[in-house]
Amino acid sequence: MKYMIRLLDIVFSFFGLLLLWPVGLVIYILGLFDTGSPIFTQERVGKSKKPFTLFKFRTMALNTRSVASHLASRTSVTKFGSFLRKTKLDELPQLVNVLRGEMSLVGPRPNLFNQEELIKERDLRNVYDYLPGITGLAQINDIDMSVPEKVAAIDAEMLQNLTVLTYFRYILATVAGKGQGDRVRVS
Hints:
This protein has helices spanning 2-34, 79-87, 94-99, 116-124, 137-140, 148-160, 164-175; strands at 39-45, 51-57, 104-106, 133-135. By secondary structure, the protein is mainly alpha-helical. The strands form two sheets. Strands 1-2 form a two-stranded antiparallel sheet.
């Protein structure tokens, strides 16, 4: 099963990058006008708790603190960034992470190393035995990382029941707009 999902990840991320590069280029150029630095990179916790550099299109102002989205201020999100989050286009550069084998299309969202409570909860449930993902059960059900025990339990449930069919189900639900993406607090 793991090998089949990895093969699907490679095929979909390769063709996704190949077909969507014009969209990515437009977002990049618009991002230059929006923040001056359209690509956002951040160290995240990967499989076996190894660090990796996550790529996204920038949705927040350059001076925003490096915290989990649910801890960031809504005022930090730019107007263009809000559009990218709603459409989930900010995630497009993560196809590079998938192609490189650091992420899967489907899996638990990769957290920051300073999210110690979430790391503890995910450790208890062996979530780090798997690649993190762009989308998954928690994301399409609007469960964010502000509730570590709940998100870790949902992540573990998803991973235990992951099949090729559910893999496609999570991807299609995400593409169809289910879930809100990473939330930011209202302040």
